Amino acid sequence: xxxxxxxxxxxxxxxxxxxxxxxxxxxxxxxxxxxxxxxxxxxxxxxxxxxxxxxxxxxxxxxxxxxxxxxxxxxxxxxxxxxxxxxxxxxxxxxxxxxxxxxxxxxxxxxxxxxxxxxxxxxxxxxxxxxxxxxxxxxxxxxxxxxxxxxxxxxxxxxxxxxxxxxxxxx
Length: 171
Hints:
Blueprint lengths: L1 H48 L3 E5 L3 E7 L2 E7 L3 E5 L2 E8 L2 H4 L5 H13 L4 E6 L4 E5 L4 H29 L1
Parallel strand pairs: 5-6
Antiparallel strand pairs: 1-4, 2-3, 4-5, 6-7
């Protein structure tokens, strides 16, 4: 009888621990969501004070990619799309630990890279609401690399045309 009570007591304690952990986890999620939402609200004023005009908030952006011949649509939702001096930027607001070491935070880095890929822009802004700081991030665009190759090809082509013309004119 004593062993059965002991096992029941251990099970009750175990269930209580699981319940308490679950409630603590829910509390942390709610707290972080509230902090993030407040950060986004503050960021709107902060961006405007820094001279950015807010074009949209949480606007869904779509892009497509192809996987083994299948067209796949992806939807992303950056915090803000803003404009300054006629240039469009994507602005992502972060609070807490995500900003302090974003260079090492692959989740944030990948998120910003995807936003940058999804839409034409002049850069991506990481808004650090803990330090009231804007970090401008520029990813190397594939288009730019293509343009360099195209320019090289045009240069080679023009040299060849000039050599051919020179040969026919002087012969």
